[in-house]
Give the backbone structure.
Amino acid sequence: MEAGLKRDQERKRTIDIIDLTRRLEDSMAVFSGHPPVSITRHLTAGKDGRNVEKISMGGHTGTHVDVPYHFIDKGFSSENISLPSICGAVVLVNIAFKDGKPITVKDIQGKKEKIKTLKKLVVHAHWQQTGQSYYKDYPTLSVDACEWLCDLNIEMLGMDTPSPGPFGQKGDEIHKRLLRENIYIIEGLTNLDRIKEDTFLLVCLPLSIKAMGGVPCRAIAITSI
Ligand SMILES: [Zn+2]
């Protein structure tokens, strides 16, 4: 291991963090129709005295936050994201692997009181596919489960899948329903299996970019300080 990295990893820690973010890398798989991810060298240390990279990708790449403007022209966009709505104590809802079947009210109603109190939930659907398979046949919310969450007046829904709805028009309707209620959607979370409690402290920080319908973020769970 490189000495500087080793020294960093041996530093004394005063906080336990679980990183819930998918790593961005050149040519990684993306949703059908979204821009490809390109991370290339713009300047090189050998020739230019420094390494500087150039990134090109869509707003809905990797772990990211969807805001109303994604589907609603008059909805608010990324610069208006309210961090207290996507950070704080959240309910973790563990769902047994659904194998293509939608997530129903029955799967989540056991946490109703906690969801009503905290207004933020993260659904752990145990979706572990990688590459292009990540975007195919992932577990999605049923229309009833989506309505049920809207009726509870939630502020934020996080998921370990690429979208709360299936690819295509049905999924668009689920998105629109949530975004019309100004519910933030965090898509593409990972490492949820490492969270042992059924509520946890989430810190989700989308990049501060103007006029976007979805913004890549770093999302972490703070498990002790
Ligand atoms: Zn999105």
Summary: Residues 169-180 form the longest helix (12 residues). The domain at 2-224 is CATH 3.50.30.50 (Glucose Oxidase; domain 1).
